[in-house]
Amino acid sequence: MNINIFEGFGHVLYEVAFALIPLLIFFLFFQIFILKLPMKKLMDIFRGMFLTFWGLAFFLQGVHIGFLPAGEMMGTILGQKEHLWVLIPIGFLLGFVATFAEPAVRILNHEVEKVSGGYIPRKVMLYTLSIGVAISIALSMLRIIVGIPLWYFIIPGYLLALIMIKFSTRTFTAIAFDSGGVATGPMTVTFIVAMSVGIATVLEGRDPLLDGFGMIALVALSPILSVLTLGLLYGRKEKGNERTFESES
């Protein structure tokens, strides 16, 4: 089967340009009237925008011709297997790997480590988010197999998050809710959602619209709970250090 890797590439270029041009216009406005950055810095920014444009274009083209078809095909094949329980560990593994490779997650972890002065290491955040998303994908697979309504997970999950906020610090609360948006990036959306829709399509009694979708809601919730849990563990660690210091004094 011959695949034209540049099929529809012109439309992708248009979409990326349509998204980036307003940002470029705003930047130029601030550069002219407020920022007045030196030419060397300006050229670095323009080079970064140029690389961003082509990076996004090639990534989205890869999504259209590779990720989406591959994810849906995998879901169709796995959904026809006799032992459906294997979807749960497969979902866990794919959720972990997708989050581990998510560029937006890496950037968030870098910023958290930088702003916290190394108090929250990027590796700790990376594994926390990856495990949280992996659990949510595994639960999504269980939901599709058994036919559990989505709100059975969403409502208790957000109620638990609100309770955990009471015992967490403002820093971890802010990071947690930002993490929820970052984790639902292109790696998760393009591949795993397509796979879940493929599974729901071939499973008897499942509706691709009702059962295949809804995974992103769980993915957005899981980093909130995992980061808040991390905040509670950090809080216990700090209290333990304080008690040790007091006893030594």
List the helices and strands and how they pair.
Elements: H1 9-35, H2 39-79, H3 87-100, H4 103-115, H5 122-146, H6 151-167, H7 170-183, H8 186-202, H9 208-212, H10 215-248
Transmembrane segments: 12-33, 45-64, 84-105, 126-145, 151-169, 181-203, 215-235
Keywords: Membrane, Transmembrane, Transmembrane helix
InterPro entries: UmpAB (IPR011435)
- Mean model confidence by pLDDT: 88
Overall spatial form: flat
How many distinct helices?
A: 10
The SSE string, one letter per element, is HHHHHHHHHH
Computed Rg = 22 Å
- Unreliable segments (pLDDT under 50, ≥5 consecutive)? none
What is the strand tally?
0
Structural class: mainly alpha
Residue share in helices? Answer: over 70%
State the distance separating the first and last CA atoms: 74 Å
Largest sheet: none
Strand content: under 5%
Explain what this protein looks like in three dimensions.
Keywords: Membrane, Transmembrane, Transmembrane helix. The chain has 249 residues and is an all-alpha fold. 83% of the residues lie in helices and 0% in strands. It is flat, with a radius of gyration of 22 Å.
Offer a few descriptive terms.
single chain; mainly alpha; 10 helices; transmembrane helix; UmpAB; transmembrane
Summarize this entry quickly:
With 249 residues, the chain is mainly α.
